[in-house]
From TrEMBL:
It comes from Fontimonas thermophila. Pfam families: KshA_C, Rieske. This is 3-ketosteroid 9alpha-monooxygenase subunit A. The keyword Glycosyltransferase does not apply. Gene3D superfamilies: Naphthalene 1,2-dioxygenase Alpha Subunit, Chain A, domain 1, Rieske [2Fe-2S] iron-sulphur domain. Its cofactor is Fe cation. Residues 18-130 form the Rieske domain.
Amino acid sequence: MATTKEYGLGEFTFPRGWFMVAESAKVTDRPRGVRFFGREFALYRGKHSGRVVLLDAYCPHMGTHLARNTTSYVAQDGQVEGDSIRCPYHAWRFGPDGKCNHIPYSSGPIPPAARVRSWPVREHLGAVFVWYDEEGGEPDYELPEIPEWNDPAWVIGAYDDLGTINVHPQEIIDNITDVAHFDPVHGSRTKFFENEFRGHMAIQRMGGGHRTLVADGGAMLLTTATYHGPSLLLTRMSGLYDSWIIIAHTPVDDGVTQVWHNLLVKSASGAVASEQDRIAARAYQDAALAAFAQDFEVWKHKRPNIKGLYVQGDGPFLKQRQWYRQFYNPRAQREEIQKSVEGIYHAKGFAGAPQTKAA
Ligand code: FES
Ligand SMILES: [Fe+2]
């Protein structure tokens, strides 16, 4: 494991952007302690509103973790009241804005310092995302839409939580430019490959045969994989089925990363997915997850790649690492960094992708 500093990414330890913190279905009025960006949070859903709240975890009274307790009677009786949460230790209550709004045993005024930080969150694509920003600014890009999300012909999977891995996110992002690993790791018969860097997006377009996801020697697999910011990768894939792969990764500590995977599959049978389609979609998600696990296993056991020994034929790793720096530096530098890498890069020996013309 290596740190942001060792990769030379910039001023900030953790990148600026939207980051997945949980699958929506797992966020209830039973608070959960979660850890990201080297800090502890309390995550819960308001009782009647259904609103998701993410607060800094430690109570300003005496430092208790708001969401890692099961035995206090406050926790046993239910800590969430409306959109507020009670501390398990002395039952101070905090609103969704993080301000203390009730101290049960004190009739004096509530001190202004009785507050925790409340984080901007959004529910999207079946998940909860937080806007993380060391400058404390407003979001500077939107979370992307998947046009088929509400289409009944598409089956939406549940998120596979791959847990945490002792790998800096840089090593995961490297994958978007790694043309040379597709054949050895995934059994792709790559014919087309290109990368494009545009603003906050890094795009990979590729095409070719595939040993497992389409019949070998037969049909083509065309994929367009796009990083929307530093953590959310959406891949449109046409193969055995039309599908979308969602891969989200979020820094837990400097050099430790949590990863999720999900798949949306278009049903083969028609306008509304049947039970049979759901079973087929789950099997396809497992196949896609198995393909992703091939990358995961390499990451898990490799040493950090601080300075690679790149040769002709490797993808544009250095451009990609430069693109990634925009999230680790003040937003004042963003445009300059984006401009320095903007464009389409063809991998040596591969034709450009037909998807470029389609887009
Ligand atoms: S430590 Fe939280 S109420 Fe006392
Ligand atoms: Fe891969």
